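User: I've been trying to design a sequence by hand for this structure and keep getting stuck. Would you show me what you'd pick, starting by listing the structure so we're on the same page?

Assistant: Good idea, let's start from the same input. This is the structure you sent:
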């Protein structure tokens, strides 16, 4: 079964007047994982798709949705997959790829059949992002040993973290999709500090590995008009190109960042110092 919803883009002058309910309605993706279901959210920000796949009792096939007006999902798109659960399998046009937790798979444009399923009696949780593609690049698995790993932050600032670049142009050829995974060390709660924006690409954050009963406050908005959305484990949030994207949790956690736009340069961003935020 596939369930999908659609989100428009928003002007920052409008967003500054949104209520908490309106912010959550337009930017939060509250449900990604449901048994034997593929959940997809199509956003007009760079026509990005955020989704979750939870195959429990049967394999699930990625199908096209009305908004794509395509014969199959990847007819004009590329796809990034990161498993955040137990071992699973993804079959792409007959080729099987096994993904353990925190491993990724890039699937290029033109592949007609993508099937998700559990493996070895374990329960995978497949988080997916997709963007329009102008070229067909090869499908490629990226294990944790293949990631480009960067240590960031400082324990004194409560933001010590390990950043794993997975689907980025230094590892995988893509048209515009970029994805990675950041793990906060125990006792650290802040991510993406200093905050920043990047006008040439949008972004989406997905939070996981958060203990039960804990929460994350995700900060968004223009640097001088910030807003926040409280989030739970296995929820995602859409970040427009004009918005900061940062979070603080009541515990350490992990999150996946995904981006699309006209630029593949990871370092292209406009930073904001912590004392410059309002």
């Amino acid at each position: 079964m596939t369930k999908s919803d659609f989100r428009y883009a928003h002007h920052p002058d409008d967003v500054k007047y949104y209520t908490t309910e309106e912010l959550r309605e337009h930017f939060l993706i509250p449900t990604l994982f449901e048994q034997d279901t593929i959940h997809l959210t199509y956003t007009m920000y760079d026509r990005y798709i955020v989704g979750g796949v939870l195959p429990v009792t049967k394999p699930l096939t990625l199908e096209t949705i009305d908004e794509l007006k395509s014969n199959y999902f990847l007819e004009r798109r590329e796809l990034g997959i990161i498993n955040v659960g137990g071992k699973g399998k993804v079959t792409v046009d007959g080729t099987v790829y096994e993904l353990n937790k925190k491993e990724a798979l890039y699937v290029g444009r033109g592949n007609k059949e993508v099937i998700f399923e559990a493996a070895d009696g374990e329960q995978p949780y497949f988080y997916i992002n997709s963007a329009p593609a102008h070229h067909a690049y090869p499908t490629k698995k990226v294990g944790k040993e293949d990631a480009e790993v960067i240590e960031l932050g400082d324990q004194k600032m409560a933001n010590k973290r390990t950043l794993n670049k997975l689907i980025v142009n230094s590892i995988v050829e893509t048209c515009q999709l970029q994805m990675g995974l950041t793990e906060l060390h125990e006792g650290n709660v802040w991510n993406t500090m200093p905050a920043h924006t990047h006008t040439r690409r949008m972004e989406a954050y997905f939070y996981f590995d958060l203990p039960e009963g804990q929460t994350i406050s995700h900060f968004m908005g223009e640097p001088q008009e910030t807003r926040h959305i409280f989030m739970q484990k296995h929820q995602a949030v859409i970040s427009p190109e004009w918005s900061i994207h940062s979070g603080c949790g009541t515990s350490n956690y992990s999150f996946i960042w995904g981006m699309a736009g006209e630029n593949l340069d990871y370092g292209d961003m406009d930073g904001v110092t912590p004392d410059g935020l309002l």
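That's my pick for every position. To get oriented when you compare it with your attempt: The chain has one domain: 2-276. The mean pLDDT is 95.
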